[in-house]
Amino acid sequence: CRFRAPANGRYKPTCYEHAANCYTHAFLIVPAIVGSALLHRLSDDCWEKITAWIYGMGLCALFIVSTVFHIVSWKKSHLRTVEHCFHMCDRMVIYFFIAASYAPWLNLRELGPLASHMRWFIWLMAAGGTIYVFLYHEKYKVVELFFYLTMGFSPALVVTSMNNTDGLQELAYGGLIYCLGVVFFKSDGIIPFAHAIWHLFVATAAAVHYYAIWKYLYRSPTDFIRHL
């Protein structure tokens, strides 16, 4: 039988769901590393390299931490303290992943005087989210989801005000995919393999955003081949 997770607790996945949760992010670790290295290789200057490094670290950390947490949860469920620690890390890294995903757009596109403050404010929000998880982990799930969505949408208001709007359509598509995936994120115990399906939505949205960053903020593939 399947049961919904208790109000202040987590749903206990089946063995097959544990496996799906692990593999749906584990298989993305190497592509994330390769993709990050590619952006670094395509960078024209130091600022682009730093931005590629920030974005790449956020992307790789998301998949690595998620995979490690799900492996610990699956194979080492008797180590409750370790599992709890990695679950907190899994939640915390989402805030930094959101900030890192916006970093290329905020760092490499021209912004207005007020909009430019979002470059540092988004990291302040990530730090605030981390503190919240540390203090109230799993206590107020709706509040935590609200924080994720707020952090995801707030910088979008700044990004859409840029003079150069190339790539914003893909950015919006990726955001929409994330939002649709939230339905599965909140459906553990209701929809079979809900969390693994959520992982697939995350992977798809991240791929769309990566494509936009690669295409509109870094060199074209023909330029890359020419400089090899």
TrEMBL record:
Looking at the UniProt entry, the stretches that span the membrane are 20-40, 52-72, 92-108, 120-136, 145-162, 197-214
Q: Extract the Pfam families matched here.
A: HlyIII
The keyword Zinc is assigned to this record: yes
Gene Ontology annotations for the cellular component aspect, listed alphabetically: endomembrane system; membrane
* Superkingdom to which the source organism belongs: Eukaryota
Q: What Gene Ontology molecular function terms does this protein carry?
A: metal ion binding; pore-forming activity
Its primary localisation, in coarse terms, equals membrane
Provide the residue positions that the database annotates as binding Zn(2+). 70, 195, 199
Could you say which protein family the record assigns here?
Belongs to the ADIPOR family.
Q: What is this protein called?
A: Monocyte to macrophage differentiation associated
Supply the source organism for this entry.
Ictidomys tridecemlineatus (Thirteen-lined ground squirrel)
